[in-house]
Amino acid sequence: MRAAASAALALFLASCAGAPRAATASAAPPFIAEHFFAGRLDGVGTLKIVLHTPASTHVTSVGHAGADGVLALDQHIEQQGKPARDRQWRIRPLGNGRYTGTLTDASGPVTGETQGNRLHLHFPMKGGMRVDQWLTLSADGQVAQNHLIVRKLGVTVATLEETIRKIS
């Protein structure tokens, strides 16, 4: 179990945690990943891994959509007690609020779907772990609350909660 927790910590870090929260019935705009993640972003969060002390995280991101419509998101991740690292997302919109893509931390495809101001992403990781990530967009479209859960054999081994802000 300790190895799975350590792997979760090292493999992902840059998103968030917790159980999914219901979207509020506010005037928040729909979550369109290729719009929100375009430009520079800054994320601050707390990573909780079973049998470990919670660790702070800081993620800087730069995203842009290519002519082919694929969102390229490059991230620099700093986690308390670990060396900094980089990772890349490539997300392709499929239409009707659905997405597919890749992540350097994932061991298989990333899939996603939106419902109103929420984006749900899910993907497998090494060691038989599964990730579910929910991002909820604020009413002004400038901030997303990121809640991420990592499970192994159906048991939660790590969670991350992060606030992501657009800075350009």
Give the secondary structure arrangement, pairings included.
Blueprint: H1 2-11, H2 33-36, E1 39-49, E2 55-65, E3 71-79, E4 85-95, E5 98-103, E6 110-115, E7 118-125, E8 129-137, E9 143-152, E10 155-166
Antiparallel strand pairs: 1-2, 1-10, 2-3, 3-4, 4-5, 5-6, 6-7, 7-8, 8-9, 9-10
Care to describe what's here?
The protein has 168 residues and is mostly beta strands. The protein has helices at 2-11, 33-36, and strands at 39-49, 55-65, 71-79, 85-95, 98-103, 110-115, 118-125, 129-137, 143-152, 155-166. β1 and β2 (55-65) form a beta hairpin. The protein is globular, with a radius of gyration of 15 Å. The termini are far apart.
- The end-to-end distance, rounded to whole angstroms, is 40 Å
- Judging from the principal axes of the Cα atoms, what is the shape? globular
As a whole number of angstroms, the C-alpha radius of gyration is 15 Å
The helix/strand class is mainly beta
Assembly type of the shown chains? single chain
Widest sheet, order of strands: 1-2-3-4-5-6-7-8-9-10
Largest sheet: 10 strands, antiparallel, barrel
Helical proportion, percent range: under 10%
Question: In short, what is this structure?
Answer:
With 168 residues, the chain is mostly beta strands. The chain is built from two helices and ten strands.
Write a concise keyword list for the protein shown above.
10-stranded antiparallel beta barrel, 168 residues, 10 strands, 2 helices, disordered N terminus, globular, single chain, mainly beta
